[in-house]
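Please review this one:
***
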Amino acid sequence: MNDTLLNILVDSFPKMLLPGLAVTIPLTAISFFFAMIIAVAAALAQFARVPAATQLCRFYIWVFRGTPLLVQLFVVFYGMPKIGPAIAPFPAAVIVFSLNEGAYCAETVRAALEAVPAGQLEAGYCAGLSYLQTMRRIVLPQAMRTAFPPLSNSLIAMVKDTSLAANITVVEMFRTTQQINARVYEPLALYIEVGLIYLLFSTVLTWLQRAGEKKLSAYESRGV
């Protein structure tokens, strides 16, 4: 590696990392927060087997799992202004990532709810709890423990998927790398460098996932 390329990489690293911390991570966190709200609501609606709500949730999941994330971003950011007000790049990305991830996570949470023994729901009724109280205090906490590993994997995948937001002009980490490359034209080195930063973020989340799984295992071993 020559000195010029080394200088480019050293100079570009903080310029990539800062948007990663200021845009990529917040975009992931905000989107995943709303995705979990959507996922739990959709999973509970299906678990309750309310016909109209179940069909609506299944239609939503079918649409968002069956179409490419990039197409969804383009529809919301470039297409929606044709029939309504324009949406700024960052909010548009949050909306699409939340809806897309919510569809996948809804199936994860639904499967986890169905894995909880039916006797748990009956035990709640015997204790004098309503359906909602039983779900909130007994069934849902057990289901979320089961769902924790796959949901964590979804979060890690979302960190990488946020790079697609560059296509709707969100100046996140990958978009910044493209801008730097347009100026210095060192695509191999720069894209490897940004890939390593994504790897760093994913590795930290993987460590947190393992720590969370160990803590949950400790709770289960104590019967909590």
About this structure: The radius of gyration is 21 Å. The CA atoms of residues 81 and 218 lie 51 Å apart. The helical segments are 3-47, 51-66, 69-79, 89-115, 118-126, 131-161, 173-184, 187-221. Residues 3-47 form the longest helix (45 residues).
